[in-house]
Specification:
This protein has six helices and 13 strands. The protein is α/β, with parallel strands linked by helices and 214 residues long.
């Protein structure tokens, strides 16, 4: 793929307006800033609403050919989002489309293949920073620090056969990055979009995963 031919669709969290009680889909503005640094001139992308089983057809009609499962909402809290992302992953798997899952998005990849999650130490993983150790060619080859905003995670022994770890938390060996063995799917537990400036290693991960480098 080239930058002109990649059109990622980004999933959104579910929020309830306190004044009206209406449920709305939302996406952090950080993603617009991240994608503006992603490539010269930025990268076009579209937001995908939580319309459940109808979302793959919508994505297809918009020309989406890559997925980004964003963070927010623990699994099971917003069933409409869970069903939307499950449907999108089944659609992406059938077409061998590249997928990147961020935080909750990585947890959804684990869930899609039947793997479970465990609760992690709050002081280490909720609104914290910690070093990770890369274990594969798509992860950072050296130890570096990442942000952390999750209370649920997994350890290597929890991975289903379809997934393998790429990076671990240096403090407790929980999985910080993973990939699918037979699909172009990548998961990261940290939030690259929340850094003040996009980390070069994160930009490189996205570029390589979506085939934007020669």
């Amino acid at each position: 793929m080239t930058a002109q031919h990649v059109l990622p669709g980004i999933t959104m969290r579910v929020m309830r307006d306190p004044a009206s009680g209406e449920q709305r889909d939302a996406l952090a503005r950080d993603w617009a800033r991240f994608f503006s640094a992603f490539s010269p001139g930025g990268l076009p992308w579209v937001m995908l609403p939580n319309v459940e089983e109808d979302c793959p057809a919508l994505a297809q009609s918009l020309g989406v050919n890559a997925l980004l499962l964003s963070g927010g909402d623990d699994l099971g809290v917003t069933p409409e989002r869970d069903r939307t992302e499950q449907a999108l992953l089944a659609w992406a798997a059938a077409r061998h489309l590249p997928v990147i899952g961020i935080c909750r998005g990585m947890q959804m990849l684990q869930h899609f293949f039947g793997g479970g999650l465990v609760r992690l130490a709050v002081e280490r993983h909720v609104r914290a920073r910690h070093p990770i150790i890369g274990r594969g060619p798509q992860a950072a080859s050296e130890t570096r620090e990442v942000n952390s905003y999750h209370q649920w995670g997994l350890f290597p022994e929890h991975l289903p056969p379809q997934l393998e770890s790429l990076a671990l938390c240096a403090a407790d060996n929980s999985v910080e990055a993973l990939r699918a063995r037979n699909l172009p799917w990548l998961g990261l537990m940290w939030h690259p979009e929340r850094e003040v400036e996009a980390h070069p290693a994160d930009l490189e991960l996205f570029r390589r995963h979506w085939g934007l480098v020669p």
